[in-house]
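Hey,

The postdoc asked me to send both predictions to you directly instead of through the lab channel. I've kept everything plain text so nothing gets mangled by the mail client. Protein one:
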Amino acid sequence: MSGLRYVYAVCRPFEAALQAQLAGVAGSPPTAVHHEGLVAVVSTVPAEEFAETPLRDRLEDRSWLTATARAHEQVIDALTTVTTPLPLRFATVLPDDSAVRILLETHAAEIRAVLDRLAGRVEWSVRVYAGAEPDAEQAGHFAGRLHEELRAAAEDARLHPPRILKVTEAEEGAWGRNLLDAAYLVPRRQSGGFVEMVDKARETLPEGGVKVHLTGPWAPYSFCSLGGAR
């Protein structure tokens, strides 16, 4: 069976080279499909693994899913260092380059509008976790105050539903209550100041066990959407 195109993201043309040894999904290096001032970053993947029916089965395989998601994220992370990508939904697979160009053509106006809005910006994720015996009122107040401060410093913010997560394996069971799960859209040049705000907030943690978990900079996943292709 012939190869298919796994599509990671769309972006404007960029001059900087991606990492020479960067391997994408299925070990295939990412390449670019150009169309009228837009670029889709893709890899060639085997149809016997990524066609609709086998892909559906693969998505139930936890080890395969983890490895594929990691490869997907590696390409998006590499793109984020050289441009502002508009990430597509995980496991977006199209038949060939012609279908990729049709995707770009169909959504061209929407893609350009989103890329213009997000140019030069990155996403930072901030989560606040409660320990085993925190003061619920103080911890909740801290999380709310932190969100308001960070939202004021960012260009945009998204609140995600609280979820039960552990920060690290060593802390399993100790940080199960998520008080804040938010994403912030920040100009890349202002990221240093944003990180400093989070660091200063850690100096005012309430007693009883509260942890602030910061990750990024990421591609602006929480602030972009692309019609039916996202």
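Protein two:
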Amino acid sequence: MKLNEGKIFIFIAAIMIGILVSFNINLSTDNKREYVSTKEYQEMYNKRNKLYREVSDVREDYQSNYKKLNSFKSGYVDKEKNIADSIVEELENNKILLGYNKVQGNGIEITVRDGFDELNPDIEDPLLRYMRTFHNTDLIQIINELKLFGAEAISINGQRLMSNSEVYCSSAFISINGVKLPAPFHIEAIGNTENLVNSLKSNDSYVKRLQGRGINIDIEEKETIVISPYIGDLKVNFLSSKKNK
């Protein structure tokens, strides 16, 4: 009898284990877990932070424009002169931001030259010559770093950098705003001088990488930098504020 009871107990335990196993299998199929790599997680995290910043900027713009609208409505009858002055002031600020006004402020000047020995300008090794030549892609990287580090206005050899300015290789020249610029390149940037200098001289900056390739780069702090306005018309053929029906 005791033997039969043991067999019955084992049989019942086996049935219970089977039920639990099948339940876990079904549960795992219904609730699939997806795992992401460290790189994918970082990309999603950065994307989320970027969206947060964009939403915050939109809210700030909305509040600012809403206040302006209310001030215009409340002062339209008896304060037309003040409203006109406010509109003119805002127009001038927009011109400064867009690049149509001359601006000045403290900042830095970066001078970039190819890494050739003045006594021996010819380098036979094509790879070494390529590495020691400053390319338009290198200039784009420096511009991106300056913007990242807080530069508010940038010019290259006197050409004001606009939102649609091209940085294109034209043989021995680099073309910006349709103007071919020869080396050396003088990059002027208005912004927080200390922050710009420290960031560009950090070990992980692109400037350091260029210096490691043998490119000659000098960074000079300046109390006053004057950047001329963009000369020309900003043509818009396809942009529209109206929503397509």
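Summary for protein two, as requested: The beta strands are 103-113, 153-156, 159-160, 168-170, 173-176, 179-181, 185-190, 216-227.

Thanks,
C.
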